[in-house]
Amino acid sequence: MKEIEAAPMRLLQPLALAACLSVACTFAQSQTIRAGETSHEIAGIMILDKLPKAWTQPKYSKLAADKPAPANHVYIVIKGKVTNAAAEDRNLSTSFLWLEDGNGTKYKNDGSGTVIYQPEGTRVTLLKVPGGSTKPWVGFFPVPRGTTGMKLIATDLKYRNAAKAELALPDAMPGKPAAGGAAKAAVSAAPAAAVAAGSPLGAMTAQSIAGAWALDEAFSKQAADGNTAGLMKRVTVMADGTFVAMYGIKGKWKIAEGRLLVTYDGSAGARSDELAAVSGAYVKWPSPSDRRKFCYMRKL
Fold this sequence. Notes:
Shape: elongated
CATH topology of the largest domain: Immunoglobulin-like
């Protein structure tokens, strides 16, 4: 089983770790992959010749130093968060998350050699993820320089569940954007303890939601759960809790416990208070014609 919500990504310059520890690190687009009852949101990817001294965690300050990648290798550093939708607690480990190249060679996280750079509570090895919760993680993957066909592989955290998902990554060459695949290029991000915080839209408030929105038809068409409903080409969201789309389509919206909920006028029961999720730079607005699909909207 494979599901990818893929937004175009772009390669940025590395950020200082200190800046990401003190504020919420947010990036223009993120990628989400799902396998069974497990999902991973990938917030940032960097490809580095060395791990910078500035990333050293405070308790290891006396050991602060740059750490070059092994000979003829680079570090692929990935910042993400894992969600366990199951009722029971499960553990993330390198058995459930790894990189793989075009030849099928696997690359595991270097959990021991990078410990002084690892933000507290984000280690991929035996990270406990309680049922119904989300935990941040940061992975450090040594990969031979120039390796092609790179992808991140994630499996369901349920033991022996065959569900698997993957996400294409850039080739293992610092500064080189991806040639293709689900991710057109890479987002760069310094590791941070607060991986899960924030969104490009800022806090979910009435002020951030009110305004004019436009349907991104191209992205909605390529997204696995996307819908290109022409009725949603333009949507005006009013601060009074109502919205108007094309051809008289209208409804109500509200924010409850930090979540945006939408109800179309004339709908009832299962179509009331539908969740309109934030996904990177988009709001995934429930499609008026199919409750299983979303229109990916950008604020104008």
